[in-house]
């Protein structure tokens, strides 16, 4: 299993002010599969993703990601565990404005000490259709192009698991559709697992499984 989570809880704040955000989530996600995470606003989708991606520590339960027990790792070890294993795409593209498209994709790999960061970055930008935009800065790119750079950044190190939180939320309909197609195509090419938060039932149907959350729980699991 790419992800195996059992009885995961997340509380934020302490004592009287504590808020229960995840209230015992169980989840199994096979390798090389796609999963849509649906549910009303505030149901805990982004919080669950943060825990599974190693960005936030669960308060309780077990979180096994690619065989690693994330609940046993401190922040530094989590950062190391994410490298080359996990790719993240968010609604806001979070590109660095002072870096070109190529640098935005290559520099994180260079900092992580990976081999040939610029060669890999160029290959991945070509794969997302941006071979002609390598030296453009984010401000010179359209929203859809910026999200392609963000996807290239998430994919370039060859992650086993890709997390995407409403990746089309800032894009118009047809641009959003092409971004989704691209995510699915790159996922398949890499043999990676994709977990995608969406409000779009049509997108959810494209995934192998659909998981519905409500009030910090998983309330429905559907295999499509
Ligand atoms: N840092 C925080 N401190 C306190 N409460 C928080 C914090 N982060 C999230 N929450 C609360 O946790 C609950 C779940 O939030 P989360 O963002 O995971 O939901 P979501 O399902 O992703 O919602 P949306 O679809 O609106 O993005 C919400 O009630 C939110 O207000």
UniProtKB/TrEMBL annotation:
Q: Which InterPro entries match?
A: AAA+_ATPase, ABC_transporter-like_ATP-bd, ABC_transporter-like_CS, ABC_transpr_LolD-like, MacB-like_ATP-bd, P-loop_NTPase
Record CDD domains: ABC_MJ0796_LolCDE_FtsE
Residues spanning the signal sequence: none
> Per the record's keyword annotation, is Chaperone included, yes or no?
no
Name of a matching Pfam family: ABC_tran
Annotated ranges, domain ABC transporter: 3-224
Keywords, A to Z, come to:
ATP-binding, Cell inner membrane, Cell membrane, Membrane, Nucleotide-binding, Transport
This entry carries the following GO cellular component terms, namely: membrane protein complex; plasma membrane
One GO term in the molecular function aspect is: ATP hydrolysis activity
* Family (UniProt): Belongs to the ABC transporter superfamily. Macrolide exporter (TC 3.A.1.122) family.
Q: What is this protein called?
A: Putative ABC transport system ATP-binding protein
Q: What is the lineage of its organism?
A: Bacteria, Pseudomonadati, Pseudomonadota, Alphaproteobacteria, Sphingomonadales
């Amino acid at each position: 299993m790419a992800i195996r989570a059992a009885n995961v809880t997340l509380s934020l704040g302490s004592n009287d002010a504590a808020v229960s955000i995840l209230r015992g989530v169980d989840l199994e996600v096979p390798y090389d599969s796609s999963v849509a995470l649906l549910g009303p606003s505030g149901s805990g989708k982004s919080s669950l993703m943060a825990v599974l991606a190693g960005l936030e520590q669960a308060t309780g339960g077990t979180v096994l990601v690619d065989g690693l027990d994330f609940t046993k790792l401190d922040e530094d070890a989590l950062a190391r565990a994410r490298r080359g294993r996990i790719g993240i795409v968010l609604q806001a593209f979070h590109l660095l404005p002072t870096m070109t498209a190529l640098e935005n994709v290559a520099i994180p790999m260079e900092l992580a000490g990976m081999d040939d960061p610029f060669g890999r970055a160029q290959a991945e930008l070509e794969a997302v259709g941006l071979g002609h935009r390598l030296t453009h800065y984010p401000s010179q790119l359209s929203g859809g192009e910026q999200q392609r750079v963000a996807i290239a950044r998430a994919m370039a190190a060859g992650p086993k698991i890709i997390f995407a939180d409403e990746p089309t939320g800032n894009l118009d309909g047809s641009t959003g559709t092409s971004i989704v197609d691209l995510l699915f195509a790159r996922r398949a090419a890499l043999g990676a697992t994709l977990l995608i938060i969406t409000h779009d039932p049509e997108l959810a149907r494209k995934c192998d499984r659909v998981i519905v959350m409500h009030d910090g729980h998983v309330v429905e699991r559907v295999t499509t």
